[in-house]
Amino acid sequence: MAKAGIIEEFVTPVIKHLERAEKQIVNLKSGDDKIKKKFEEINKMIKDKKAILTKRKEWEGNIIEKFGVVEQHIDNILEDKECNINGALEHILTALKEMVEKETTTEEPGEDKAQIPKYERGESSTTSATELEDSMPFVAKIIETLDPQFKNCLYCLSMFPEKLVIKRRLLVYWWIGLELVRAEWNNTAEQVGGRFFSDLVDKGILIPHKTREHNKVVDQCKVQPIIHKKLISSARRKGFILEEINDNFLKVCTIRGNELDVGAILNVNQMYLKSDVIRKSDIKNMAVMQVGQWKCVDCHHIEADKTDFLNEPVPNLKCLSLQNISRIPELPEPIGYSTSLMILDVRACHNLEKLPPKIKSWKNLTHLDVSMCYLLDHIPKGIGSLRNLEVFKGFVIGSSGNKKWCRLSDISGLSKLRKLSINIGRGSNVDDEDSSSLKHLRNLKSLTMTWGLDLEENKPVDQEQESKTMVPENPPLEQQEKTPIIIAPVNIFPPENLEKLDLICFPNAESPQWMTSTGLNKLKRLYIRGGNLAIVSNNNNLQGAWKVEILRLRFLKNFKIGWNDLHGIFPEVECIELLECDKITDFPLTDQGFWFKAKQEASPGNNSADETFIQ
Predict the structure, then answer these.
(1) Region 378-384: what's the mean pLDDT?
(2) 495-542 pLDDT per residue, tens
């Protein structure tokens, strides 16, 4: 929905509601010109300022609150003919004037923090208890106008504590696990869930907390406080039962008939997992188990003493997250028999050494994340039989010829794979068959390749620290200059349909031979982070120009290129990010290290980069 979503969907009906009230009251009090003039003033104010209210997307939360008050007073006029009409109209005028005055005094985003709505600054709202109560009917109407499938996705949000930041990916995974979203037509379940998430943001129900600077995608969000309060009561009426297992775990279940149906379990703040933390009876009907870390801020490490609660089969389990839990050397055997499992997230389980041999029984698995599991030195061969796999993060190319270990050629038949990340270490065994195997993945759109030195003395580093030690299993980049480079295989050819390529710690000075504009003629996003790359070969005269639109270069100490040369290689680039590329100094960047193409190109005779492009 466009920025005017809340205006068109909820404010316009309020205007019509007001017109009905006007007809009723004017007919009833035909001689009262003051009342008639107030109705005219309200109508004129709304219509004159509607375009202004539509202009700023982040304004939708305030619109919900104020128009909730407006509609409540209109209802009082319609339902109670003896009410103080003048008083009700004055309240409506006051609410509308507050919206208009606040909007007309608001400066451009980023200029004055004091003018930014408080929920955007992470501060609590000053909405009074009376305003909150008056707004509830309007919030209820917002919820009721949603599609039934939308409503159920929304009710899931009542489980998360108020004001906490929630990741987009987490919500989508929950919706998939609870089967609230499914694949439809040419869209995967994740794409359908992503669309729902975006719509909730556009409607003002979710407040953007973190947006990716380079592509403006909302990664994290919070629920509007006023909507969160209403969600809890609405969810209960619709059969969502929320209860506490203990001080740190919550459980939500749905009711079907007279019995508890599938549900979800959430680790709110449990740092130590013991055998008595969760009763086996609590997970009997669970479809989603969020046991690991999920918070975006105030993250804490989770340590497992025992995971006895995972030693019993959970027949309905579809989504399991053990992210960032230490002291789990291997997954409990019963998980291998969870044939309904669709999503498994064991990201950053630093002690995980192997995956269960029964992995081939996960025929419904669509998402597997084993990234940042640094002791995992291979992937079981059975992974190649998971024909529904769409996202695979953390594929390890083993260094052994063990026939039970999965090779790149073994996953060439995963025709639904859309996103893949692979780790290439010292001695990784890549033969000719493996080199060309990714070319068979016609639906693969995103590929991340990480090269590591795999030295014994090196300690793994979190990729998300956004520091100079970009790559796990590598020493800091400044140390690499003193460390003999151990060349890892680079002859892994991506598929032609690739749209995003992320190269992390590429070991060579020149880009690989397969990295050409003709071989990757659909590539839109190119990220190069860390490593020894110094130059991107420019053979455009023979191959044609690259079609890359987003270029991100990070931690490249040896990389050097001029502004005009870069645009010669990437003429269609619209966004560039540079971070700690010491030999590049003359680019017109924002303070955050970004450059964006102007909405309007300069005249052909203007060669000034600063005039042709905006920062």
Answers:
(1) 90
(2) 999 999 999 999 999 888 899 888 898 999 999 999 999 988 765 455
Q: Which residue has tokens 């956004």?
A: 466
Local structure of residue 519 (DSSP, 8 states) = T
Q: For CA atoms 587, 590, 596, 602, give the dihedral sign.
A: negative
pLDDT at residue 570, as a whole number: 92
- Residue whose tokens read 């002791």: 375
Strands (E), 203-258: 206-211, 218-223, 240-244, 249-256
Distance CA 488, CA 471 (A): 14
Sign of CA dihedral 136, 140, 141, 146: positive
Distance, in Å, from the CA atom of 44 to the CA atom of 514, rounded to the nearest integer, reads 63
Beta partners for residue 368, in sequence order: 344, 392
CB 356 within 8 A of CB 335: yes
pTM surpassing 0.85?
no
> What is the DSSP code (8-state) at residue 161?
P
pLDDT bracket for residue 612 (50, 70, 90): very low
| CA atoms lying within 13 Å on the CB side of residue 106 | 20
**90: which 2 tokens?**
């004055």
Place of tokens 């009342």: 35
The number of residues making up the chain comes to 615
Q: Cα(282)–Cα(294) distance, rounded to whole angstroms?
A: 20
Q: Where are the beta strands (DSSP E) in 461-513?
A: 500-506
DSSP per residue over 164-184, as a string?
Answer: --EEHHHHHHHHHHTTSS--B
Alpha-carbon gap, residue 302 to 223, rounded angstroms: 25
Q: Which residue has the tokens 């001080």?
A: 247
Q: Quick one: residue 494, left, alpha or beta (phi over 0 = left, psi -120 to 50 = alpha)?
A: beta
Terminal-residue alpha carbon distance, the chain: 28
Q: Detail the DSSP E strand segments found in 305-361.
A: 319-321, 325-326, 343-345
Instruction: Give the model's pLDDT for residue 336.
Output: 81
